[in-house]
Specification:
Elements: H1 3-38, H2 44-47, E1 76-79, E2 86-94, E3 99-103, H3 108-111, E4 117-127, E5 134-140, H4 150-162, E6 166-172, E7 177-183, H5 198-205, E8 210-211, H6 217-222
Parallel strand pairs: 3-8
Antiparallel strand pairs: 1-4, 1-6, 2-3, 2-4, 4-5, 6-7
Length: 228
Amino acid sequence: MNDTEKRSLDDLANGEKSETNGALDSLNAGTNNLDQLKKPKIDLERVRARADQSIDLGVTTEYTVIPIRNPRPDEFFMCMADEKYSMDAHILSLKTENEWYMIDPDILPEIQLESQLRVRTLYVCVVLSTNFAPFVTCIPQADEMGKINPWHESGHRTMEEAKQWWVRRQADKANSGYVITKAMNAKLPDPKWPTMTLSEIIDRAFDKFYINDFKHPVLQRLRGEMMS
């Protein structure tokens, strides 16, 4: 066999080998593409929600309305234990309207005989809910003789318990007090307290319920100078 014929056979062998390698490459590429098509875009283990996950969005919640009210019998709530978030103030209670008004000290001498005016302790509480909505509740202190209504005494005790536990308060009319239910489930979330100061909370809650003028419509109504 001469050199020319040998080169031709070598070229033919190399060509067949090249075609074979090309076919294998194409087959492998096809298999890889098929694997890519079969692989899910979303990894379920990455996106699965877990109980221990929490997302810090770097935002704070500001409440435009903070109600003044009593705890409802069907809700669990907690009371802020920090003494900076509790205070005593002169509060005028209108039971019919279910309203509480804070009285400025300058007009106290003119309305001190009003039977619905009492020194009350203001407590800041939050509800066990998705947004931990805050509210302010007012409970009367003992009178000048040191006597206190059993309902009010029971109310103060409830708040002390609510500083440690999620509690639910229900009326016990037979014993003139409240029965409380403590939520003992360890899976319940910790409360998310307002980031506002007590001054900001009180200012927001009593925005329309602050009386610093003897001619305020509420006082005029109580004196019989205008109709309800």
